[in-house]
Design a protein that fits this description.
The chain is α/β, with parallel strands linked by helices. Helices cover 27% and strands 17% of the residues. It contains 10 helices and 17 strands. Strands 6-5-4-3-2-9-8-7 form an 8-stranded parallel beta sheet. A 7-stranded antiparallel beta sheet has the order 1-10-11-12-17-14-15, with helices on one face. A two-stranded antiparallel sheet has the order 13-16. It is elongated, with a radius of gyration of 22 Å.
């Protein structure tokens, strides 16, 4: 999954490379604007196969229920390749802290490294926190992505607008020259150390962006073009990541020419309350549809803020752990090349937590580590769901086929697919006898 892409940085507002894709984007944008936000999460009901959630990539599934002809028509793609450790990313909010699980990537956000924190006055930079953050990530061997943005009050076009990130922080800078100076200073100081720069955090959310929604795509396109020029001038090997956008937001960004400035497409695949990990499939497919035929067609897709909002009443710790593992597995299966989990030390009430009040790892953290041990170094050949609600994902490691199974419909008997052992998320290994296994919500690895 090494990211290799020829880069061409265009000046601001130059959308020439998107003109050929405009009819496609207009069609996609109109369709998404009318319908995407009204689509209910796709779920597997008993006895019903949801083609939108199928990922058979050369995956011959012999699990209970079989794969219907409708599902076969939904098959697309090929092997995602060997999964690297950099797929497993993390946000750590405590400055310079280390997560309790191994991760190959680190996204710097919500840890005191916004533009407003780094440049409290024009031309005066405070580097200590970001220096410590970068050093900690490097010590852990993690590739670093810095999320740019959160305008200082002195540079803001709306200097009296309140926000959780500081007065004026969610507004466009009044002068793009100030943005250029900030991005250039960061990229110069951390050249060769920060691998990627993300252009703003979730600008479709008012808490992070206070500009007019109709202008978001154009505004982000301009910021991306200026950021790309500043970053690549200081560090030609660094990557520029688009803002984390929904399919509708991405369509607007690309229509404004933003795709010509970015190397990676960012997305926010955080769940809404009551949805399951499998529901992200429809969003990923919609993002791919928007990307098709544009300058970002074939570009890496990152999940820059994987997270979970728990439904009212919460979920048991076992179900939360199962969701973490399933989310990681499915993101890898759909070809997402990096998933930054938010966050190791997230203390927001109602969020799925990897750590407890005293920052001790939860069952969900153990599930993260188990999924990582199952996936890193393996080739993902895709996943498929059966009519009985069993999901089956095929892995190939060192020439040996392995399988990951789970159920969205309670306990279901399924074929063991010729495996001799099963391993659960807690690392317990069980010998298989009789050719069948009982599949439940928590994934199991068959070997």
């Amino acid at each position: 999954m090494a990211i290799v892409r020829e880069r061409q940085v265009l000046p601001p507002h130059d959308a020439a490379q998107e003109i050929h894709a405009m009819p496609h984007l207009l069609t996609v944008f109109a369709t998404l604007s009318r319908s995407l936000r009204r689509v209910k999460p796709v779920a597997l009901a008993a006895g019903v196969l949801a083609p939108a959630l199928l990922l058979p990539m050369g995956c011959s599934v012999a699990a209970s229920g079989g794969v219907s002809s409708a599902a076969q028509k939904a098959q697309a793609g090929s092997s995602t390749g060997v999964i690297p450790s950099s797929f497993f990313g993390m946000v750590v909010k405590a400055p310079a802290a280390q997560p309790g699980v191994a991760t190959g990537a680190r996204r710097l956000w919500d840890s005191g490294v916004t533009w407003a924190a780094l440049e409290p006055a024009r031309g005066s930079f405070a580097w200590a926190t970001l220096d410590a953050e970068v050093a900690a990530a490097q010590q852990a061997g993690a590739e670093i992505t810095l999320c740019l943005g959160m305008t200082p009050q002195w540079a803001s076009s709306r200097p009296v607008m309140p926000s959780a990130y500081g007065v004026g922080a969610t507004a466009m800078p009044a002068s793009l020259a100030d943005w250029d100076t900030y991005v250039g200073a960061v990229a110069t100081r951390y050249s060769g150390r920060i691998r990627a720069y993300e252009v703003w955090n979730a600008p479709e959310t008012p808490a992070y962006w206070s500009g007019a929604p109709a202008q978001m795509g154009e505004n982000m396109s301009v910021l991306a073009a200026h950021a790309a020029a500043a970053v690549h001038s200081a560090d030609s090997a660094a990557l520029v990541v688009s803002p984390a956008l929904s399919p509708t937001g991405l369509a607007a960004f690309l229509m404004a020419g933003g795709g010509t400035s970015v190397d990676v497409v960012g997305s926010t695949l955080a769940s809404t309350s009551g949805s399951g990990p499998e529901d992200a499939a429809a969003t990923i497919q919609a993002l791919r549809s928007v990307m098709a035929g544009t300058s970002v067609d074939g570009s890496p897709l990152w999940n820059d803020q994987g997270a979970w909002v728990l439904p009212q009443g919460g979920l048991s710790s076992q179900v939360q752990a199962a969701y973490v593992a399933r989310a990681l597995i499915l993101n890898a299966a759909y070809g997402v090349q990096r998933m930054h989990w938010y966050a190791w030390d997230d203390s927001n009430a109602g969020d799925l937590a990897l750590t407890g009040a005293s920052h001790q790892p939860t069952e969900s953290a153990a599930a993260f580590a188990s999924a990582e041990s199952w996936l890193v170094g393996a080739q993902m050949n895709g996943c498929a769901a059966t009519a009985s609600g069993v999901w089956t994902c095929q892995l190939v490691r060192a020439g040996r086929t392995e399988w990951v199974l789970w159920s969205v419909n309670g306990s279901v008997a399924s074929s063991s697919l010729g495996a001799s052992t099963s391993t659960d998320l807690e690392g317990n290994i069980t010998n298989i006898a009789g050719g069948n296994v009982t599949v439940e919500a928590s994934p199991m690895l068959l070997q």
